[in-house]
Every structure is written in C-alpha cells, then in structure tokens.
Design goal:
alpha+beta; 7-stranded antiparallel beta sheet; two-stranded antiparallel sheet; 9 strands; globular; disordered N terminus
Length: 209
C-alpha cells in the first residue's frame, strides 16, 4: 500500500509539473502592426469597456502587445521597452484567458502555463465586461527576489507598462482599459505569489463593439 501511495503521489507531482512547464511559442512581434505614429496612437487612445464576445485576437497581435509591454528592445544589454525604477525589471505580465494563466517570457518570446484556472472572474469585481474580452493581461510587480521591497516603485513601473499596452492596442485597433480592481488574495493564491509580489493592474483586451 505504501508503494502504491508513493507511486500515486509521484504521478500527481509529475502531472502538476507537466502543467506548470507547458509552453506556447509565440510568433515574432510584428512591428508593422505598430506603424501608427506616436501622436496618432495618443490621439486615438481610449479606455474601452465593451468588447465583442467570442472574437479572439491573433497570436501575432498578442505577441506584439506583450513585446510593447515588457519586451526587450536591446538584446545586447537586455534593456526593456519600458523603464523600471533602478532597473528592477520587476513587472511580470500574465496572460489570462478561459484556458488558464500563462507567464510571458520576453527573452524566449513564449508563454509558460502556471495555472489551469480561469482567473478572469477574480479580476471582474462586479464589472462583468471583463469576461467578454478574450484575454486579460495581469501586471504583477514581483519583488520577492529583491533585497528591498518598494510597492511605490512597483506601481510606477506598472504605469509605464500600462501606457504602452494602451498605445499598442490603439495602433492595432483594439480596445483595452487599465483596472486596479481585482480580488487580490485570490490572484495571489492562484499564482502562488510571495511576500513582496504585488498584483498591480489588469488589462482586458479585445475588439470593441
């Protein structure tokens, strides 16, 4: 019996690791999608709260938005598109949809599945339009590995990333809105966040009505 239980536990652990290690390779970001001038993107930027339910965005669109958020624009130095306080590079972007939650890896340009839970209901906070958007980006300032924790810096850094998400969506004709409303404890539990990791903002993204 002991051997059977040990085997069962091992299989469960292997299954859990398989989910955690599932990766999706994204297509290369398409800079042509961002050809709109900065001035025009700023002019057209809006906060959208109505989405065409069931109309997905493409993997290439998602890849391009993720690059604009925390992608690498200087491979030699590893510098990011968006600035961060004292170069902490603390903002991690999670892609949330009905199939689960995926962590964006800028260097490999891929997504790693971290949960099979649809986390969007925990980010609605009674604003059910979030569920109509095919994808929501969750911005987390992960500082648990840093020597000092500074939530204020995390908020600033999330703001930089949020603005780039807005501009990229405007350039591609997509709608989004920056939201701080969410069930913080549910998000932290689902993502197994540690002390010093701060869920900051979420961005539902999709086509507007």
């Amino acid at each position: 019996m002991k051997k059977v239980l040990s085997l069962a536990f091992a299989l469960i652990m292997m299954g859990g690791c398989a989910v955690a290690q599932e990766t999706i390779q994204l297509p290369q970001p398409d800079m042509k999608m961002l050809k709109m001038t900065v001035a025009d993107a700023m002019q057209q930027r809006r906060s959208g709260r109505e989405y065409l339910k069931g109309k997905e965005i493409s993997d290439k669109q998602l890849s391009t938005i993720l690059w604009a958020s925390v992608g690498i624009n200087d491979p030699k130095s590893g510098r990011l598109v968006t600035p961060t306080a004292v170069n902490m590079q603390d903002i991690k972007v999670y892609v949330c949809n009905e199939k689960g939650v995926y962590l964006y890896n800028a260097k490999a340009n891929n997504l790693t599945k971290v949960s099979s839970e649809d986390l969007r209901p925990s980010m609605c906070a009674r604003q059910m339009f979030v569920m109509d958007a095919p994808v929501t980006l969750l911005l987390v300032s992960e500082q648990s590995s840093k020597q000092r924790h500074n939530e204020r810096y995390g908020a600033m850094d999330a703001g930089y990333v949020s603005q780039d998400i807005y501009l990229a969506c405007a350039a591609m004709g997509l709608k989004t809105v920056a939201r701080a409303m969410m069930d913080q404890e549910a998000v932290k539990k689902a993502l197994n966040l540690k002390e010093g990791d701060y869920p900051m903002l979420n961005h539902p993204i999709g086509y507007g009505k």
